[in-house]
Amino acid sequence: THFLFHSLQAKMSRPVQARRLEGIDKNIWVEFVKLAATYSKVNLGQGFPDFPAPDFLTEALTRALGGGNHMLHQYTRAFGHPPLVKVLAQFFEKLLGRDLDPMTNVMVTVGAYQALFCCFQALVDEGDEVIIIEPFFDCYEPMVKMAGGTPVFVPLRPNPPKDGKLMSSADWQLDPAELASKFSEKTKAIVLNSPNNPLGKVFSREELGLIAELCVKHDVLCISDEVYEWLVYDGKQHIRIASLQGMWDRTVIIGSAGKTFSATGWKVGWVVGPDRLLQHLRTVHQNSVYHCATIAQEAVAQGFQRELMLYGKPESYFVQLPKELQQKRDWLVQSLDGVGMKPIIPEGTYFLVADISPFKSDVPDVPNSDEPYDSRFAKWMVKNKGLAAIPLSAFYSEAHKNNYPNFIRFCFAKEEATLKAASDILQKWKQEKTSS
Ligand code: PMP
């Protein structure tokens, strides 16, 4: 027909890509997730547990499915299923020591990813600068750019311990003068991620105090990504920057049920903050995704009700999970140290960054290549040894990708058998090296 003829002929020749996507079309996860799927025998790359989510959570989902409330299969309130925003408000009232309104101080999102997207879209304007602390969860940079903002990077700098001890994530610190120098009239927001992915750094009260002081002085917002809030080790405490003087009014707290309840595939996240900020996030959310799966929200609400009841008790998942993960961390630290791949001991999260220097002779460098060495190394390792990890350069901006070429990130939220298999691969590799 006439119509068919036209559609066959009409090839488009105009550029189709919106300008806001320029320079952000390459993505590390697309590449490394595919490499891991193709080659890995043991995957310590992407951040997700390979152990089951807790029974109380999966049982809550089963109950929601079969419990006779067929309305749980329909739309719910756009800004969060009422039972979930209510229990989140109760929980955060406890954590923050202030009254919260579930309808205006909490919003449920499709994972922490969408919470971040709402923040940048709602709060960052063309020409605004957003300070990002390096190394950082990689999506902050493209999200700032898509909003028309300019990312301004400030590094955590390592201070190697003198006495031959292993480095800790606490040895990576901001230089106060350098941080202060990044704040200007153009600064709209700073992104804080504590506990930090990829290093596992848990910012101290002094460090948070410094950031808070600068935010107040320059009237800057704080986007506080706290998805690893419960994963803190060695008796350390996660401090919420929103609880520091002058910060509640200018901070959006971001969380994730995926990380909190070991169910990353559910994609339930949230924001907590003052209505004067959240009202704008609601506008973005309403006009983009509308809401997150009702039934997943219902089950997460029940998970939080359980945790509220058991708060601080030994049976609490938020107490048990970090205990188990700390053991896994220690185990991976030992096996990496044993083969000479020096780990930086993380204070929090389920990630660990390790120094690959002793294994470099197996993976030739290519001078003047566009690709950072650690990325080449991680690709070689998954293809030749079957072990997947993520290069540290993935967590640096383009200009700084070659700053620390000898580190890769492992995820240790894995079954013992998985961690053992990883350790076996590394030991065998080391033996081959010493005997050749
Ligand atoms: N923030 C950080 C620091 C993360 O590491 C991740 C997940 N890797 C997210 C946000 C996204 O979380 P979600 O899966 O809930 O979207």
TrEMBL record:
A molecular-function term among this protein's GO annotations: glutamine-phenylpyruvate transaminase activity
Keywords assigned by UniProt, alphabetized: Aminotransferase, Cytoplasm, Lyase, Pyridoxal phosphate, Transferase
Catalysed reaction equations from the record: an S-substituted L-cysteine + H2O = a thiol + pyruvate + NH4(+); 3-phenylpyruvate + L-glutamine = 2-oxoglutaramate + L-phenylalanine; L-kynurenine + 2-oxoglutarate = kynurenate + L-glutamate + H2O
Aminotransferase class I/classII large domain ranges (all copies): 41-422
Cofactor: pyridoxal 5'-phosphate
Signal peptide per UniProt: none
GO terms of biological process kind: kynurenine metabolic process
Catalytic activity, EC: 2.6.1.64, 2.6.1.7, 4.4.1.13
Source organism, top-level taxon: Eukaryota
InterPro entries: Aminotransferase_I/II_large (IPR004839), Kynurenine-oxoglutarate_AT (IPR051326), PyrdxlP-dep_Trfase (IPR015424), PyrdxlP-dep_Trfase_major (IPR015421), PyrdxlP-dep_Trfase_small (IPR015422)
Keyword Secreted among record annotations: no
Subunit structure: Homodimer.
Family of this protein: Belongs to the class-I pyridoxal-phosphate-dependent aminotransferase family.
Protein name: Kynurenine--oxoglutarate transaminase 1
Organism: Prunella himalayana
